[in-house]
Amino acid sequence: MRRPAIAFILIFISIVLFFILNLVLGSISIPVGSVWNILLGTKKEPDIWENIIWKSRFPQTLTALIAGSGLSISGLQMQTLFRNPLAGPSELGISSGASLGVAFIILLSGNIAGTALIKMGLFGEIAISVAAIAGSMAVMSIIITISRYVKGNVILLIIGVMIGYIATAIIGVLKFFSNDEDVRAYVIWGLGSFAKVSGNQVYTFVCIMAILIPLSFFLIKTLNLMLLGEGYARNLGLNVGRARLYVIICSCVITAIITAYCGPIVFLGLAVPHLCRTIFVSSDHRILMPAVTLTGASLALFCNLVARMPGFEGALPINSVTALIGAPIVISVLFGKRKNEIG
Amino acid sequence: MKSAKSMYKKEKTIEIKDLSIGYRSKKNTRIVAESIISTIYSGELTCLLGSNGIGKSTLLRTLTGFQPQLVGDIFIYNKRIKNYSEKELATLVSVVLTEKFDIKNMTSYELIGLGRSPYTGFWGKLTPDDKRHIEEAIDQVKIKDLSPRMVDTLSDGERQKVMIAKALAQDTPIILLDEPTAFLDFPSKVEIMQLLHQLSRKTNKTIFLSTHDLELALQIADKIWLMDTEHGIQIGTPEDLSLNGNLSNFFARKGIVFDQNTGLFRVENDFNRKIKVSGCGQKYAMIQKALLRNGILASGDIDSGLSIDIQDNQIVLYQPEQKPILISSIEELLNYIII
Fold this sequence. Notes:
The structure holds 2 protein chains of 2 kinds.
Chain A: H1 3-24, H2 32-40, H3 47-82, H4 94-113, H5 122-149, H6 153-176, H7 180-191, H8 201-217, H9 220-226, H10 230-235, H11 240-262, H12 268-280, H13 285-307, H14 318-335
Chain B: H1 2-7, E1 12-24, E2 29-41, E3 45-49, H2 56-64, E4 71-76, E5 79-80, H3 86-90, E6 93-96, H4 108-114, H5 128-141, H6 156-169, E7 174-178, H7 186-203, E8 206-211, H8 214-220, E9 223-228, E10 232-236, H9 238-243, H10 246-250, E11 256-259, E12 264-267, E13 273-278, H11 281-293, E14 296-299, E15 307-310, E16 315-318, E17 325-327, H12 330-337
Helix pairs in contact in B: 4-6, 5-6
């Protein structure tokens, strides 16, 4: 069998395996058989187990799966768009932009409306999503504008990092003027977690992403042409301006919504595309897009599992885990290159 | 070639009417070249020559439709270039650019396959017909061995051939190339130019390229476009341009001589010494060349104290009041003469 086919099967198996382990393992272990019964509702299991599965582990696992896919797709799109191996949702300041948007909403809501927005239910949720999208789009449009005038990829990346610092600084100022409850809510959001999406929120999140992820697959041919650079892409009939815009919007909206629900999650979007290029030995987005979708899901589930390992008791922030796993992947990929292209 | 020629008719593909090219910004307009009138024909290799910064790339970009023309019109098959959609243009004009890309994990075959993009469907899947075109392009450029290679492992010359194959796979009647021979070693330059010349003949495509390799262009091109600030663009066969003196004017610089007899350029060396050299054939020409490089003019009818006699199998150096010396290489000869 061909290499990609084998890889796809293995990754799919790993997703199923990690998914089950995510449901089974935790501070309280629930036997696989009981998990099965609870999910299908075939046999009555202890209430506490049902509660753990339905209220906590299942939404969390589903969130990790979807967020991992989405961030990886977004990362792949940005790496192709900027033709830069170091581009990624958090690296180019997109996540910072989303954070800034969310900070404005969460931190200022107390001052303006008198109540913490985080308690306001669906309205608060929508407000946070919209703010995250607006923030990330603002940063992305700045990056795109600058990328027209700046040739070097490194400079662009530095600008992304600088925008991140500026966003953090503004958030710091906002925190100073906010009431304690809001600051606490923001700090917890900012740690990043797949666990915060609870109850019905998770289904809204899943529904939105279930539309966005398939939509991003429509850009496969566009992305393949973008690999060749603007001149060749245009000569092959691509409307480069429009294509750029579509890719930006797609990857921004995906990142923004995930960030709104899970907080800024680092390194997944950067590492997974690299991992896939190495595993599948391909630059063809017809292979890479499904590959990052599945690999991203698998890796996110694995990270979530590590973060919840017995002993840590869920105390390990997800961002520590994604960084600890993602950074070595990126480093090894960059070292393994025949020609270094970062410059 | 005769049969190939009779198969096809030479026809106008690109017509340029009173074209001005350059850049227009909000504040000012920078005209690079103006009042260009010309026609480019199918089945011909046209080379655009001009010094750096004269606007060769701008002209090419304008012909590709990447850049709006300032004044005038470009017609492709009697229709204004502006009136073609991007998709239509993609099936008429293909390009080979100087911009380098850095793609990992893509085979040459896949890259050439991307040339089929204007014809493929929504997902870019290659049909058997697309694959036939790709195979044909690979055959024409003779790069069967390169097709499974990853593009980032190719040398500059190999990469250029793959890009030409991409342009062929795109199946357009017109191919524009921006300095396809830059950065290549000399044999690769010759190979690429000959390949393009043959392609123009075999496929009846219109091939237009910019280059700095004027020696090669003068030998291989069917038409030459000379571009400079003084005269604008002058067009003709290399031979016509050399007969009417345009070429020598164009490259009128110190140290370059345009040899009217060969129609080629050579480097002009001043001489300050003359030596009698007798003989003929290739050895004679080579010794003459080596001496001239060192500021010595070789001549048959000079009375110098020193003289060189070239025979079929030996070179003899005669010096006054010394025994004749047998010379085995030109380097040895130079060591004796130049003190």
